[in-house]
Amino acid sequence: MKKRDIPKETVNRLPLYLRCFERLLEEGEYTVTSEALSRRLNLNSYLVRKDLSRFGDFGTRGVGYKTRKLAEKLRAILHVNRKWKVGIGGIGNVGFALMTYSGFDREVFDIAVAFDKDPELIGKEVNGVIIEDEQELTRRVKEESVKLGIIAVPPAEAQKVAEKMVKGGIQGLLNFAPTQLDLPEDVRLTHMFFTKELETLAYYL
Questions:
Q1: Counting Cβ atoms within 10 Å, is residue 52 exposed (0-12), middle (13-18) or buried (19+)?
Q2: How many CA atoms lie within 13 Å of 125's alpha carbon, on the beta-carbon side?
Q3: What kind and span of H or E run contains 58?
Q4: Which of 29, 126, 147, 153 lies 20 to 30 Å from 166, alpha-carbon distance?
């Protein structure tokens, strides 16, 4: 099945499945049924089976899934069985927090370059990475062959910084700035709007 045929909702659940299989391995569980998996993830067992079946026939009737095999397969599907260089634009509160975040798997996501326009920040080292002048962003992203970028600048600057990243060769962007971005169709863009998520929660409460 081609990537474009996989529903976005299924793709969004793949990291959840991977985390679950990795946790099972840590707990010494080497097989798991779709029912047990669904209980852990609070998902319908039919949905779990359907999601995983889109990528192959992994389960054994009456036994379930082999956790190690599925974990390895999901890493390959998500392309996290390799190292990705990441660039961050904007080292304010959010950017600094991301650079020092211990939850990153540094064997997969390597923050290779970071940029800001504040002269007081340029040249400083954060978690082993030197903050560079934003003017050098496109050139340095290209030099380092960075393919993933994070936008953590104020909304008014986000479009400009995103364009510089794309010009340097970045193909996937995670945008923390609360604004929409206009980018080429072949650039994959994901937004992280904290206020929007809180507003949605407030609605349901």
A1: buried
A2: 3
A3: none
A4: 126
pTM score, whole prediction: 0.85
Tell me phi and psi for residue 9, to 5 degrees.
-60, -40
66-91 residue pLDDT tens: 999 999 999 999 999 999 999 999 99
Cα(92)–Cα(176) distance, integer angstroms: 12
HSE-up of 70 (CA within 13 Å, CB side)?
33
* pLDDT tens digits for range 145-172: 999 999 999 999 999 999 999 999 999 9
Position 152 scores a pLDDT of: 96
Q: Which residues are registered as beta bridge partners of 191?
A: 175
Sign of CA dihedral 152, 188, 169, 126: positive
- In angstroms, the CA 115 to CA 113 distance is 7
* Residue among 64, 52, 58 at smallest CA distance from 24: 64
List the domains of the chain with CATH numbers: 3-77 (1.10.10.10), 84-198 (3.40.50.720)
Distance of CA 74 to the CA centre of its chain: 14
Return the closest-CA partner of residue 162 out of 144, 123, 143, 188.
Answer: 188
